[in-house]
Design goal:
By secondary structure, the protein is α+β, with helices and mostly antiparallel strands. The strands form three sheets. The protein has a five-stranded mixed barrel with strand order 8-9-10-13-12. Strands 3-2-1-7 form a four-stranded antiparallel β-sheet. It has a two-stranded antiparallel ribbon with strand order 11-14.
């Protein structure tokens, strides 16, 4: 059996995060201390094998993105005793977590300015209007996800004509120049787009907004989420 599925206690290096250890069984957190246990119980451990010094990948809920836990494992203790009865597992926590998510959505939906701002690290550029980021979303937790740049539409790399494909390559190259891997940007979240993708404004290190730079370069158009305008001559 991969040790990531064994009954064990993981102790983490203490950098002031709100937990010091997790008890894990069958790849799921069943207890946490010293506090905030309800927030971590039911979390899935995605690594089949774990060792001291490793930073692990986790998922809070089955439909959530995988995130990287910032703090490495300090020690692993394997537990031969049965897991204590009465531990709140995922099914018991589903209602509480759903309620928490609903409250957060209600708070942020009240005003565009209320959506959170994250200082993120760019890990890659997908195309002219999509980047990959790592962003701290909880003490000790880094979310790894793709972000759709809000307010613009850029040509598609797999577009319908050679002109659109060439413009898409130019837009992608410009974004890679502006925010290479490792660049730090400010992300002003703006919810999700109509396909459920994370949506947000990207503020460059020099204070400019990525969308504005793309538009000024002639490589993007203003876009509010409706029907896309064609990039190929004669297309309807």
């Amino acid at each position: 059996m991969p040790n990531g599925k064994r009954h064990m206690r993981l102790q983490f290096e203490d950098h002031g995060q709100d937990f010091l250890w997790w008890e894990v069984m069958d790849g799921e957190v069943i207890d946490s201390a010293p506090c905030q246990a309800w927030a971590w119980v039911g979390t899935d451990l995605l690594d089949d094998h774990v060792v001291p010094g490793q930073k692990i990948m986790i998922r809070f809920r089955p439909d959530d993105p995988a995130v990287l836990l910032r703090y490495p494992i300090a020690r692993i203790k394997y537990l031969d005793r049965p897991a204590p009865s009465g531990r709140p597992r995922r099914a018991a926590l589903a209602g509480a977590r759903t309620a928490l998510a609903a409250v957060m959505l209600w708070i942020y939906a009240g005003s565009a300015a209320a959506w959170p701002v994250y200082e993120a690290t760019v890990t890659g550029v997908i195309d002219g209007d999509t980047i990959a980021i790592d962003a701290p979303v909880w003490p000790g937790v880094v979310a790894r996800d793709r972000l759709r740049v809000a307010g613009v539409d850029t040509p598609e790399l797999h577009g319908k004509c050679s002109a659109e494909k060439a413009a898409a390559r130019d837009a992608t190259a410009l974004v890679k120049m502006l925010v290479p891997a490792g660049a730090r940007v400010s992300i002003h979240l703006d919810g999700q787009d109509k396909y459920g993708r994370l949506l947000g404004r990207v503020i460059l290190p020099d204070g400019r907004e990525l969308a504005d730079v793309l538009i000024a370069a002639g490589l993007a158009r203003r876009y509010d989420g409706g029907a896309r305008q064609p990039w190929c001559a004669g297309e309807k």
